[in-house]
Amino acid sequence: MNRTTRIGGKSAATVITYACLIIGSVIMIFPFVWMILTALKSMSESVRIPPTFFPEVPYFENFQYALTSLPFGKLYINTALMVLGRVVCAIVFSSMAGYAFAKLHFKGKNLLFALVLIQMMMPSQIFVIPQYEMLSKVGMTESIFALIFPGLVSAFGTFFLRQAYMGIPDEIAEAAYLDGCNQWQAFYKVLFPLTGSAIAALTIFTAVFAYADLMWPLVVNTDINLMTLSSGLATLKGQFTTNYPVLMAGSLFAMVPMLVLYLIFQRQFIEGIALTGGK
After folding, report:
1. Is residue 242 helix, strand or coil?
2. Which one, of 44, 51, 39, 48, lies nearest residue 236 by Cα?
């Protein structure tokens, strides 16, 4: 009797779990499906009340108009340079800072780390004006470097890699010193390779957040040839009216690189999420 009840209870729990997962999956996938269907509608059909789910006649001209409205080639290149620059800076500077906070002993270390935590908890929007003024005074707005600038130093990356280095026993560094390594050699030859999983997770999240950044590229670059995919798509939105099918078609083009990367590095994405959740 108890065995039957347990089996029945497990079956009921399994059904409820899968039902919740299916509902959650539908909720997450629906905006993507709606985007595709809207990209295939005409302008009048996209704003019709009540709305239609499927297009009456597929309107593929929206994709052609999106390609001719924006220089997607330059937008892809600018976005790739921005993402690459921010990822490299996050790895290099966050690794060194995280190592210093975790393994070195110097005066004021706790105070400096507290300031890093405070900066990490602040919304990024409050730094937009000071950062823009800094670049403007040295004449470096309207440039690729301006897109990378906010990602030169990552408070989250510093904290995240500091936690990774804290998990490495001090005996490993001491053994490296006994083998003749100086402090710098112990860092980049011994300790840095041991944080590979954390570096991979930081790379993934830095790339995703940089790719989706909209506000900063809109502020710092007004030349369409220096914009990113997100800021370039924003120019398709009119002041009074917006051609939503064309905007959705352009958004689909913008999703392609990240979707391809996800399909290629799906395992690393999942491991990165699991690692950050575990921390």
Report:
1. strand
2. 39
